[in-house]
Structures are given as structure tokens and as C-alpha cells.
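Hello again, I could really use a second opinion on something today. I've dropped the whole record in just underneath, so have a look.
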Amino acid sequence: MSKSQWLQRSVAVIVMSGQLSSCTGWRAESLSPVDVIEDQHTGEIRVQRGDGRSEVLYRPEVNGDSLVGRMAALVLGIGALLGVLIGLGSMQGPLDNWGQ
């Protein structure tokens, strides 16, 4: 391996390791949810409930006194529904010409 290839690979490993270690943790906020959402313009927050359960809310908003957002289950559910519809659309078999 030449020195230039070794240098390129070394730089790539350093850059990738820096990216993999960043933004992988959650931190507790002492501010109210309204302040966190308005000040930091965050795209997702994790809410820890009093009973120990936690949820991740995507695109969080405060409506009145309620914290709302899109949950991962909604995104996964829509993806699964699209997968089923695509599978049914490409299905070949006895129902291929159904309704014609």
C-alpha cells in the first residue's frame, strides 16, 4: 500500500469515527418543553414519562398545554402499509386480472 493510500484511509477513518461518536446521546433539559422547542428548533425529542416509559416525538410542537409530535410508530406504520400495497400491486397469480 502506498503512502498516499495509507494517508487517505487514515483520514477517512478519523473523519468517520468522529461522525459516529457525535450526537448519539440524549441529555436532560432543565428548561420547559416550550423553551427547548422554540430556542433549539430541535427535530426530535425524547420524553420520559413518570412511569418510566419513554417516547421519541418527531417535529415536536406545543399546542396549548400539550406536547405533541409525530411518533416513530406512525412512520413505520405508513412504511409497512406502502410495502404491502407495492407487494399486492406486483403480485402475479390467480387474482392478477381480477376485476377485468
Notes: Residues 94 and 100 are 13 Å apart (CA to CA). The radius of gyration is 23 Å. Helices lie at 3-21, 33-40, 72-89.
